[in-house]
User: What shape does this take?
Amino acid sequence: MNFETPYVVYVVDDDLSIRRALQRLLRTVGLRMEGFELPADFLAFERPDLPSCLVLDVRLPGSSGLEFQRELSQLGIDIPVIFISGHGDIPMSVRAMKAGACEFFSKPFRDQELLDAIQLAIAKDKEHRRIDREIDDLRQRLAVLTARERQVFSILVTGQLNKQIGAAIGTTESTVKAHRTQIMRKMQANSLPELVRMADKLQLQMA
Amino acid sequence: MPRLNAFARESATFLDMRASRYAVSLALVAVALCLTLVLQYFESGRPTLIPFFAAIVVAAWLGGVGPGCVAAAAALPAGLYFYAKTLHTVSIAPDNVLLFFFFAACAMAGGLLSTRQRGMRDSLDRAHSELEFKAIALSSTNDALRIEMTERRRAELALADTRAKLAHSARLMALGELTASIAHEINQPLAAVATNANCCLHWLEPAHFDLEEAREAAAGVVQDSTRANEVIRRIRAMACGAPPERGPVDLNAVVREALTLVDAELRHNGVETRLALVQDLPAVSGDAVQLQQVVLNVVLNAMEAMAAVPARTLDLRTAHDDRHVALTASDTGLGFRDREPNSVFDAFVTTKPEGMGLGLSICRTIVEGHGGHMSAREAMPRGAVIEIVLPVEVSQ
Assistant: This one.
């Protein structure tokens, strides 16, 4: 396993030895690491737009890692979290996993397991980012549609015929047909099933 | 009745003794008379008064003045009888009387002198025996005192031993409360050691050989294992029940050592610890482990008192003058809640729901055992201040 592509692993742990050791470990696989003593330092850091994951110590000064995980989701920071704990117990790990953590390791952890988890988390983030980008793209296309076209689009993807759509919005079948051509062009869809998948991704609201 | 009887018996003996003394003096004179008669029978010369003289002397010597006089009186007619110019008459010639009185006076004087000497000897004897008695009494009192002192010393040793054991159990209890944090303190460097060692192995593999990286990782192993070792050493010192040892102790170092054990706990509880340790603090004489225990206890108490308040600051300050070294710990916790501050040092007094109320009481015993004292007061605007004052070690 070797990450040569630019990814970042963030580590929040108040223990300098752990941060240094992790830095060395990640260097062996060519990963860039940014270490932080306090959660606030992590929040203040200007994060590059790169696939990344966060390795978080459960026991943090002032607050617990679990609280910080909650805080992150409240702040809308969507990043895969891997917990490491000096004295992890089962209820704690269950809570962490329920809150969406990728993994939960007790110190001392197995380096390879941690690296595997980091790889998985980064892959997850990469996929996440890809989907995000795709949705962004679709949203941009959607934004070009007129209000009328958007209305037709939302009914169209439910599988209704042009005639039925025309009746629903009070227009002729040929007008609906013209709208439909516009929608397919603007959304860059080659077929109706593709358009339906796009609508799915956009979670388009039914009119 | 029994008392009266006893009195009668005693006076009878007394009378008996007096009477027998007089009887003895009369008997002596009678013996002297017989002796003179016997002497005269064998030697028809001029009679001698020496037997009477001897009788009076002996009577006075044995019986004192009274019997001496009686003997003299009894000897008078006999002496006159024998010593008169006209032998064997009782008629009195003036020069005979004079001679006899002279003779009697000499006899009395001799007797009295010897009586006095005897009296003096008696009182000397009495004094001597009294002295002997007193000496015996004194030595037995001495023995009793010595036994008492040994007992006392043994009791004191037992007390000191009990106190040390109590302090030890209190230490173990404090360590028990810190188990999670101590496990964390040991696990952290151990995790770092394992990771560093793995990194070192990685860089030593031919595929990605990098000596500089490997060396750096190995240095990390050394550093972190030293740290783990330090934590274990401190815990062992706290946990072991070795008897307290006296030696010069740097209170600043004591504070720092104690803090390393609770550092993680303090940070986890969001306590900001501020240290103001003066430089060149004179050493105090005492046991470093016990003093660390006191600091640990004070810090843990402060931390618990601040658990329910939002702003948690613990100030630890050292100061000194010519003869004393002081450590002040002030927190921003709930304080004493209308209680007399110094009552926290009483046994079984606690502000904690599940506390035993022994910690600070033991701390005070330890501090007082070091010749110092411990006091508590309210902090302004809120919280508690605990002050420990210890005497500076006097260099011999």
Notes: Chain B has nine helices and seven strands. Chain B touches chain A through 29 residues (CB under 8 Å). Chain B has a mean pLDDT of 82.
